[in-house]
Amino acid sequence: QGELVESGGNLIQPGGSLTLTCTATTDRFVSRTMSWYRQAPRKQRELVATRRPDGITDYADFAEGRFTINRFTKNMIYLQMYDLQPEDTAVYYCHAQPSPPYPEVWGQGTSVTVVS
Q: Which pLDDT value is given to residue 1?
């Protein structure tokens, strides 16, 4: 496993909810901005949500009001997703922004499939 490991992806029906978890293997990400991205089939990877170390968050338009990013613990970031729709189907990735001299870090992804 890598420095960031995602879990919680699943098959779910429209209108359902999922919580994705990103677990860090070190404490070095506490002071870094963390994000969730997603990549849908045949599409480019896109930003879903970000959380700064001070707790300030930002969301893509499609996520505003439906998704919430926050921390469970010092080493765990989650993405709560509500009212999921088929267009939310994607592989979801955890991401740590670069903080020189440290580069950005990506998790391996967890798959979310929304279908009736």
A: 52
